[in-house]
Write a structure and sequence with these properties.
With about 475 residues, the chain is of the alpha/beta class. Helices cover about 40% and strands about 20% of the residues. It has 14 helices and 19 strands. A 5-stranded mixed beta barrel has the order 15-16-17-19-18. Strands 1-2-3-4 form a 4-stranded parallel beta sheet, with helices on both faces. A hairpin with a 4-residue loop joins strand 16 and strand 17. The longest helix has 24 residues. The protein starts with a helix and ends with a strand. Bound molecules: S-adenosyl-L-homocysteine and iron/sulfur cluster. S-adenosyl-L-homocysteine binds next to strand 13.
Length: about 475
């Protein structure tokens, strides 16, 4: 979600004539220094928080070198008052602060900053001559300390969805598409409902128009985004309500589009209708990310996930009955407050039973303001780490085994382009979201090609272009 927000920010700025500099700017003298830096933050776990404040501290030096430089901060962290208070108090070199609900205002806020600076400079220039030298020194210092020129606007939540924002895509052939914003689930550990607000679904016609335009522009694959896509409830212009599956069937008919993915679906809302859509919609990929979080019903209840271990396993069974080769990935939190060794063992057992293709595993991180952060039975760090290592080892083994079973198969791969790590190699994704590296000409980037799988490891496959 944040990644796509960054694409929208880039798109809006490009429209106003700003240019993105390559990442190497800070170290590579060949490039111009940036005039603006925008930090889009995530608040899902504590390490993201830490990294943000570390980066912000480093920017002080750049600001001292170039007082005209603009430091802009946004994203989920800005929706938390203790964070913005800390920035306002301790980081006077921050120039623009905006939140998740007013991304669309950012280009105007940036212009407001430049106007504020010009006004301040004019006021300083109009000051009487005596002590001018000293005043000049002070003025420079004050511009550097941006408090008086700062543009700072955060909204709690908003009803409206701003349509028609441009987005600068990382790839020409695939794109994220937001279908909804916010979350109503309040899982006990999670900060998202507080930072992203309540659930809001986009109008289905707006989504269809966007996807048709993307397809006409060469996009072959869309990933529909939402915190819980299967609780999508869009109302069309005729007042008719659409659920997530209605949207999938409509998108399946978009000419030129080849693949539809989505992220993320909550097990409690995974309907039989959606499971059936996997079998019936040829463009819907054979892949689902279905976060389980924990394998013990007792922990799931304390997490407020609203499903049991048995219900989750039943869903997996139904999915595999409908689409036998569907790839399934998951999110698992280790060390949730009160998790016993027996609870954790149930997580291991569930993972072994489902045999996930891949998993994102997280150490539980208490988020201020969420109910679980107040639970008294927090798990000691060393216990969390020890369980985490056991889980990762097992998940990696299963992923490697699942990938090995692909050797000898022929897969259709959407080519993403040159592999970032090995020269002369291309990489792409199969329908099941498996990463495949293979040799081939760069010109086939963005095309669907047939690749014979010749090797595998834990996180990717190797192949030969047919
Ligand atoms: N809406 C998605 C998840 C968004 S957050 C869903 O419900 O599946 C992505 C993942 O981060 C979550 O699935 C969860 O596994 C993890 N996560 C969220 N809050 C966390 C916390 N406080 N500590 C550790 N992991 C967390
Ligand atoms: Fe967070 Fe739960 Fe909402 Fe996902 S469904 S964003 S984990 S509260």
């Amino acid at each position: 979600m944040n990644e796509h927000d960054s694409e929208v920010i880039s798109g809006m700025l490009a429209q106003r004539g700003y240019m993105e500099l390559p990442e190497s700017t800070e170290t590579d003298g060949a490039h111009a220094d940036p005039d603006i830096i925008i930090i889009n933050t995530c608040s899902i776990r504590d390490n993201a928080d830490q990294r943000f404040f570390g980066t912000l501290g480093q920017l002080k030096k750049l600001k001292a070198k170039n007082p005209d430089f603009a430091v802009c901060v946004c994203g989920c962290m800005m929706q938390q008052e203790h964070i913005t208070d800390r920035i306002r108090r301790s980081y006077p070199w921050v120039d623009v602060i905006f939140g998740t609900h007013n991304i669309h205002e950012f280009p105007d806020m940036l212009e407001e900053l430049y106007e504020n600076r010009a006004k301040t400079e004019r006021a300083k220039a109009a000051q009487p001559a005596p002590g001018a030298h000293q005043d000049y020194a002070r003025a420079k210092h004050e511009i550097r300390s941006s408090r008086e020129t700062r543009v700072d606007r955060i909204y709690e939540d908003t009803e409206e969805i701003v349509e028609g924002l441009p987005a600068k895509r990382l790839y020409t052939h695939k794109s994220f598409v937001n279908i909804m914003f916010g979350c109503n689930n309040f899982c006990a550990y999670c900060i998202v409902p507080y930072t992203r607000g309540r659930e809001k679904s986009r109008c289905p016609e707006d989504i269809l128009t966007e996807v048709k335009a993307l397809s006409a522009d060469g996009v072959r694959e869309v990933t529909l985004l939402g915190q819980n896509v299967n609780s999508y409830r869009g109302v069309d212009r005729a007042g008719q309500q659409w659920d997530f599956t209605d949207l999938i069937y409509a998108l399946n008919g978009v000419e030129g589009l080849e693949r539809i993915r989505f992220m993320t679906s909550h097990p409690k809302d995974l309907s039989d209708k959606l499971i059936e859509a996997f079998a019936r919609c040829d463009k819907l990929c054979n892949y689902i990310h279905l976060p389980v979080q924990a394998g013990s019903s007792r922990v799931l209840e304390r997490m407020n996930r609203k499903y049991t271990r048995e219900q989750y396993l039943q869903l997996v069974k139904k999915l595999r009955e409908a689409v036998p080769d569907i790839a399934i990935s998951t999110d698992i939190i280790v060390g949730f407050p009160g998790e016993t060794e027996e609870d954790f063992r149930q997580t291991l057992e569930l993972a072994e039973e489902v045999r996930y293709d891949s998993a994102f595993t997280f150490l539980y991180s208490p988020r201020p303001g969420t109910p679980a952060a107040e639970y008294e039975d927090q798990i000691p760090e060393e216990v969390k780490h020890e369980r985490f290592n056991r889980l990762v080892e097992m998940m990696n083994r299963i992923s490697a085994e699942k990938n090995a079973a692909y050797v000898g198969r022929v897969c259709t791969v959407l080519v993403d382009g040159p592999d970032k790590k090995s020269r002369g190699m291309l990489s792409g994704r199969t329908d099941e979201f498996k990463l495949v590296d293979f040799e081939g000409p760069e010109e086939i980037t963005g095309k669907l090609v047939e690749v014979e799988i010749t090797g595998s490891n834990t996180f990717s496959l190797k192949g030969r272009l047919l």
